Amino acid sequence: xxxxxxxxxxxxxxxxxxxxxxxxxxxxxxxxxxxxxxxxxxxxxxxxxxxxxxxxxxxxxxxxxxxxxxxxxxxxxxxxxxxxxxxxxxxxxxxxxxxxxxxxxxxxxxxxxxxxxxxxxxxxxxxxxxxxxxxxxxxxxxxxxxxxxxxxxxxxxxxxxxxxxxxxxxxxxxxxxxxxxxxxxxxxxxxxxxxxxxxxxxxxxxxxxxxxxxxxxxxxxxxxxxxxxxxxxxxxxxxxxxxxxxxxxxxxxxxxxxxxxxxxxxxxxxxxxxxxxxxxxxxxxxxxxxxxxxxxxxxxxxxxxxxxxxxxxxxxxxxxxxxxxxxxxxxxxxxxxxxxxxxxxxxxxxxxxxxxxxxxxxxxxxxxxxxxxxxxxxxxxxxxxxxxxxxxxxxxxxxxxxxxxxxxxxxxxxxxxxxxxxxxxxxxxxxxxxxxxxxxxxxxxxxxxxxxxxxxxxxxxxxxxxxxxxxxxxxx
Length: 476
Hints:
Shape: globular
Strand content: 5-15%
Number of helices: 16
Distance between the termini: 38 Å
Structural class: alpha+beta
Helix content: 25-40%
Largest sheet: 4 strands, mixed
Number of domains: 2
């Protein structure tokens, strides 16, 4: 972090978030940012990404830092960079500058605070035995920092949501309630990520015309993200094998007749994500079978977005997508039967096995480090049904939430060639008719949608979804 963006809007937004947390919990909170993890030796690390819970209240991606929140006030603990670090990393802001940029009340060195230390600053005078003792926290992902949390808190700090208890669970629940609804600062950041992500997808479509392998399209897309000072919010999916949902291989040749599925999103410096998927014909022209199935997926995508408004159950959006896809497959002769009955027996899930989307924010699957605590309304648990068990979000929508709508159609060999499923659905799937659509491995269409007071706003709408518009972008 070479520069600081100290603006009243940032400081005010962070202060408001901290005051809202103080209204929900009556105990101190200590949050760690974490530190970079080594790839193979200590000096060669993976890119650092601060804990999202830390980022939400601190606003800056500070490495190896801790914040203590109490009564709406923030105390920062971070060490000054050593003189030697300037050789390798350049000059970095001083502790007091960082504290001022995030609106911290006080700032202290982190390395000087040990569990047994006493009377070091006002924070210890208020709690002279242990500076983190009695405070709630959330376990971070990197192991070294996580071990440090055990030491400083003098108790177990669990990362497994099923084991979180006591004030740590109360804190997690409070943070979920805050982070589900985005403030103006968060939405502004997500719009920036969306704008860059849209440009990346257009660059990928344009690059497809001359690309020989998937990696060349990926490079064109990620180049736009990097050039705008952002990083990828997740591992990019750029593949002609769209039936592999989280495909991270980019060596496959791009050949005439292929569809290319690109699921690529940018993340701002402060951690806010976008998440967009488009699928296009590498030739610039969908075949008749490809267009038919593309339009089935698009109908589900559009129907879900049209239905989004406060109070709507996200599970109902998923079922709406399932019915729309089932109806489209019946129209194409791939499925036989009544639409509702087909969905009830999960026949649609042969081709649409995942949930229709998820919440979006500081993480692309926001707050999934807390398991289903954020995604599922209290008292609800995941279904064991084939067509519902991958649903990431099951709660009523509220104004200020950002969710994705991403239905798809996939021909996954492990599913379609499974003897048990073939037997179960032998009377509802026309396998011969399905074989006529062999040039479709996978199609997904995904947009990011803000729930407004009266409906929905697609914040990624500047990237078209219509088949003809997609073709024009690829053709140039």
